[in-house]
Amino acid sequence: MSAIKHRVKRLTSQLEEVAQRGMDRHIRLGVTGISGAGKTAFITALVNQLLQAESHQLPAWQVMAQGRYLGGRIAPQPDLTLQPFDYTGAIACLQQAQPVWPPSTRNISEIRLALRYMPDKGLAGQIGRPVTLYLDIIDYPGEWLLDLPLMQQEYEQWCEQIWPQLQLPAWGELTESWCARAAALSTDATEADIAELAQEYASLLLTLKLQRGASLLQPGRALLPGELAGAPVLAWFPLPPEKLANLGEESSLRQTLMSRYQAYRDQVVTPFFRDYFARLDRQVVLVDCLSALNQGRDQVEQLAQTLQALSHSFRYGPGSMVTRLFRPKIDRVLFAATKADHLTVDQHHNLLQLMHSLMKSSRRQPRYFGTQMETLVLSAINATRQGQMERDGRTVSVVSGTDLSGAKSVRFPGEVPASLPGNGFWQEQGFSFQPFSPPGWDGQDALPHMRLDYALQFLIGDKMR
Ligand code: GDP
Question: 46, 160, 165, 349: which is deepest, by most CB within 10 A?
Answer without folding.
Answer: 46
